[in-house]
Design goal:
- This protein is an alpha/beta fold.
- The chain is 31% helix and 22% strand.
- The protein has seven helices and ten strands.
- α2 links the parallel β2 (47-52) and β3.
- α1 (32-40) crosses α2 (57-68) and α5 packs across α6.
- The radius of gyration is 18 Å and the shape is globular.
- It binds cytidine-5'-triphosphate (CTP) and magnesium ion.
- Cytidine-5'-triphosphate (CTP) binds at residues 8-16, 22-23, 51, 85-89, 92, 111-113, 214, 216.
Amino acid sequence: PRLAVIVVAAGSGTRLQGGAPKAFVPLDRDSILRHSLRGVLAAPRAQVVVVVPDGFQDAARADVQAVSGDPGDGDGGDAVRVVVGGRTRQESVAAGLSALDADVDLVLVHDAARALTPVSVFERVIDALEGGAPAVIPAVPVVDTIKRVDENGVILAAVDRSELAAAQTPQGFRRDVLEAAVASADADHTDDAALVAAAGHDVVTVAGHADSFKITTAPDLDRARALVASRRP
Ligand code: CTP
Ligand code: MG
């Protein structure tokens, strides 16, 4: 089966306040997007679609080129395509889906903001998909003790931690399953697994990784920069 990876990088990064749309904030001499593309391109032979804010197409093409040598200009046969995203993550995923080649039948959706996701996580998701799962996400155990609270912050109930898992990306789907779920979406969902589950499909999990954390706030950016620095030989 033919695989595609949609990298959603069209968010503005309002919580990070990084001086640029989040994917274009540097970790070292390379941007968050450039780092996240290294993991993506380790999925061999996949079509790659990068979804960016309007005005950042050229910057994204430069990142793609630096990582792969592909200019991503959409000319015949390019393995990488750059498209403009939407107001919400879900709209950006839809924009990515509309850029897929006709022969693609398995789709991974990856947050550019998870810049340091190990290749092994991509491999686990792809293996589960190729093994026949229609929907699969990487997840990690929740370490904090979680409470359900009311609008005043008063605890309503304890939540059994053993029943909880934190969802990461790349999330993998059969293309027809994801497209149908996106087409029938009635609300905005924070991830694609929620959308597909709302459409009535079982979603399985594989092991995620601590390094696959999402860069959301300034301390997350510091952590990512430290990790990159520590990996440098
Ligand atoms: N994303 C996107 N299009 C949007 C919103 C988000 O492609 N309209 C992408 C982001 O670029 C990011 C991923 O979805 O890679 C996860 O979103 P999040 O971490 O919330 O990023 P932002 O929306 O950019 O950040 P914030 O919510 O703080 O503004
Ligand atoms: Mg957001």
